[in-house]
Amino acid sequence: MSAPIKESAPPAPPAVRKAPARPGDERSEGVVLNVFSHGFLALWALLIVLPLLWLVLSSFKTDAQIGGSAFGWPENWDLGVFSRAWDKGIGDYFVNTVIVLIFSVPLTMLFGSMAAYVLARYRFWGNRFLYYFFVAGAMFPVFLALVPLFFMVKRLDMLNTYQGLILVYVAYSMPFTVFFMHAFFRTLPTAVFEAAILDGASHSRAFFQVMLPMAKPGLLSVGIFNTLGQWNQFILPTVLMQPQSGDDPERYVLTQGLIQLQQQQGYASDLPVLFAGVTIAMIPMLVVYLSFQRQVQAGLTSATLK
Amino acid sequence: MRKGQYRFVAGFLVVPVALYMVFVIWPYIQTFGYSLTDWKGQSQEFSFVGLDNYTTLFKDDVFMGAIWHNILFLIFIPAITILLALFFAFMLNAGGRGRAGGVAGVAGSGFYKIVYFFPQVLSLAILAVLFGAVYRSDSGGMLNGVLIKLGLVDEGTPVEWLNEPNMVLWALMAVVVWHGVGFYLVLFSAAMQSIPRDIYEAALIDGASRAHTFFRITLPLLWDSVQTAWVYLGIAAMDMFILVTTMTSGDYGGGPDHHSEVMATVMMRNFLLYGKSGYACAMGVIMLLLTLIVSVVTLRATRRERIEF
């Protein structure tokens, strides 16, 4: 592969055309096209940004204002709506999600890289089979497993518990994690590993102290991918995190809680709180995305390149 | 040494494999078994009913309608998303000023990519609330508000985006496209940037127009990415559960009057509301089969000779 197309390409000779070219035609085509492409690009950018801004803005309005007209500015910029949303459940949902992810993401990365590492760098009977066994899981829709999964978790007495959801998240993140880390461990040089073994390190020590630190870029991409995926997961908590009896407390995660709030709107309308809740839920994603923009795009798009 | 190595390998594999077996593989396998029973889920008692669930399923008008809606999604979502993403990716990478010979990106392409990709990191639950507000069926909804302001819609009879049987599927598709274009744009854009520039320059010297360059060079060289995108969007079109269940009316969505029903919503309703576990499992199996057929057909139908460069 040669040099990629850069934005500042050197001028190329003007195109030869069949039609008799008037002087200045070349340039004006460029300008028209430039205006044209910028126009469309800007239009789509507005289509993305405006609804989001409009929603954030709406959380400062009152219910009557929201129902009255789509336009119009909020009368007072009262931040109290965010604390009201937080108290109305968003806070709990937020904390629940964080508790689950604090355990599930590191465990996913740990177990996923352990399996991927062994499969990538050790030869043993059944290696290929196990690799495909892991990767095949990504092929199947999660709906295929839902019913038995529910009863499996029920039998383990883990419905509506953090540990149940954590274990399920870890298990369902395995295919992609193993696939990606497997490819990554294959690219790492063997020399460092051999040196560590010669110096008397055990296999597991070589993994934790030599190979894992070397795999940091891969771990970061996959980690971000898993964080986003598990943060946004909706189907699994919907099935697994319902209160099991009257005195079983709600342990909804954020996505579930937002939908719950939305569906309560029919009874007691408090749309500003709902919109404030969405804003609160968007902020961590925005922060992660803007600070790791490259890794997020790379991590998410590489997931499709199986 | 050798023995120690085996112990190490086994030690590293035991937890991941066990978790994966218990929560992923075993439920997948069980689904096939349960789909042949009349299990209600409450007790462990059930009897073998053979293929009865499947024959009932094919007479179930709601489920059949749901399959049809999934097929509509399957046709339109990938086509629209990929066309838009390709268009924008080409604009970003080759839509720049003519002086650069048609191979330069527009200014600010990095900024556009950041904005376009952002919906991808939002959860579908957030999208559901956002578009619930955008599609609101009075002047408070963003779309209706704009249309009323423009005088295209009468204030007394705003558009019921999500309650109009002919409208609801399109409204849902628009959300998916809005969500997906940025992602595939980044995917195509990366692929476009790996196309060597000499090829474009050679084409320009030979007098190729921009449209020619796109159809004769860019598109063939991007074909692999387009194919992947098609498979992924196809699989997403077979799902659609979250948006339908949260944005449309009815238990687990699907309203108005089953006009937006998809396979996944019918399945979840049968499982969680009616408690028909065995029947729901049969639907899961059908979903798997259709998803696999979609992937295989897409891969075969879009197969081209691979071009190395």
TrEMBL record, chain A:
Coiled coil: none annotated. Gene3D superfamilies: MetI-like. Pfam families: BPD_transp_1. It comes from the Bacteria. Keywords: Cell membrane, Membrane, Transmembrane, Transmembrane helix, Transport. The keyword Membrane applies. It is a multi-pass membrane protein. Residues 94-292 form the ABC transmembrane type-1 domain. It is found in: Cell membrane. Residues 1-23 are annotated as: Disordered. InterPro entries: MetI-like, MetI-like_sf. SUPFAM superfamilies: MetI-like. Its main location: membrane. The keyword Transmembrane helix applies. The chain crosses the membrane at residues 35-57, 93-117, 129-153, 165-185, 271-292. Belongs to the binding-protein-dependent transport system permease family. This is Carbohydrate ABC transporter permease.
Automatic annotation (TrEMBL), chain B:
The keyword Transport applies. Keywords: Cell membrane, Membrane, Transmembrane, Transmembrane helix, Transport. It is found in: Cell membrane. The chain crosses the membrane at residues 7-29, 67-93, 114-135, 167-187, 229-248, 277-299. It is a multi-pass membrane protein. PROSITE patterns: ABC_TM1. SUPFAM superfamilies: MetI-like. The keyword Cell membrane applies. Pfam families: BPD_transp_1. InterPro entries: ABC_transporter_permease, MetI-like, MetI-like_sf. Residues 67-298 form the ABC transmembrane type-1 domain. Belongs to the binding-protein-dependent transport system permease family. This is Sugar ABC transporter permease. It comes from Streptomyces fuscus. The lineage of its organism: Bacteria, Bacillati, Actinomycetota, Actinomycetes, Kitasatosporales.
